[in-house]
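Collagen alpha-1(XX) chain
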Amino acid sequence: GLSQYSSDPRTEWDLSAYSTRDQVLEAMRNLRYKGGNTFTGLALTHVLEQNLKPDAGARLEAEKLVILLTDGKSQDDANLAAQTLKNLGIEIFAIGVKNADEAELKQVASEPLELTVYNVLDFPLLSSLVGKLTRVLCTRIKEKRHKESADIPVNTGPQLSPTDLKISSVTSKSMHLTWSPPLRPPKKYRIVYYPSKGGIPKEVILDGAVSSLRLSNLTSHTEYLVSVFPIYDTVVGDGLRGVTSTLPLSSPRSLRVSELSHNSIRLSWKAAQGATQYLVLCSVAPDGAED
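Structure:
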């Protein structure tokens, strides 16, 4: 599977999209480069929530590996997002090109860093990493298979996944989430939320016995993406997702103009609920516009 990112991550193809080497190579040849910003934390969260899910082709019994390729320093908190993936048993390999921050690569990558961090001066030099990286990846997968037990749950239906996400009591700064827990209670819940048009993901970790949460300190008049993930000892259940916009701040109403003179006017309006100050702007109307 492959995703590109700048300020907004984009899935190019899922894990289940292709089944042969030639198909993948052909998809790579047709890939269009996505320029722009470097929100690596948002990209890692996108991979967790969108690409490493059963409906995108991820198999619960398979090892989960993420290879991050970046040519710049992240503009958001990549370390927090990476730690979330690593806490869930997902292994991260970090490859830097040109202006990548090596210290950040080492923060993001899994241990041991001598096997998971690579840095080259320019894009053509990436080809020199292919042989070693392939051997390391295959070896790591074999090692992890030997270490882990074979009785990992493979049911992502109602037994492991919450249902019926409801978002209520929405204000300009907060909203309330509730959901129905899965048949098998999780150890914890991980709630991730961020503005749909791009922004730093925030997360809350809840005890598995809790099935509601109030999100506060939100930005007004903003659409938020919300995800709820159940976390078990050896697996992450299917997440719930919702989209809701916070309310706009209340506005002053019924603007009236009175007491006009050659150099003054009086303005009056109905108050805006919660406003502590008002900013009044005035300018000369352009020629031909209404006075």
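The mean pLDDT is 86.
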